[in-house]
Amino acid sequence: MKCPFCGFGDSKVVDSRPDKGGATIRRRRECESCSRRFTTHERVEEILPLVLKKDGRRESFDRQKPISGIQKACEKRPVSIEAIEQMVDRLEVRLQESGEREVPSAVIGEWIMNELHGLDQVAYVRFASVYRSFKDINEFMAELQDLLKK
Question: With contact defined as beta carbons under 8 Å apart, do 127 and 69 qualify?
């Protein structure tokens, strides 16, 4: 593993343990050149379905994309990065368990909105406003009214 500090190509594992959910292995490493320590996370490479975009393109699922979108929606909200990562972990499991070869991005967006609805309603509205591309204030108000009914 390449050292993030000095760029040296070799490091040794000092400590290794599973994370709380058991989905990843946390490894403490020490650079064999500069002796600084850093942490890596190892996960099983899973084969996830392709994401079918609105314009018809297909692309590989990129975990960073939903994390980034959720983080933007949760900005300045009391939602931890751990909660966001757990949400995306559940999304990945759901995608794998679906058994589908392709999943529309709209389905993924709906899953994320359902998770956000239970986690933080302000983040939910923020995510929905971007995801659903509200054209005017009336559509936005209709979403807020639906939220109040639930």
Answer: yes
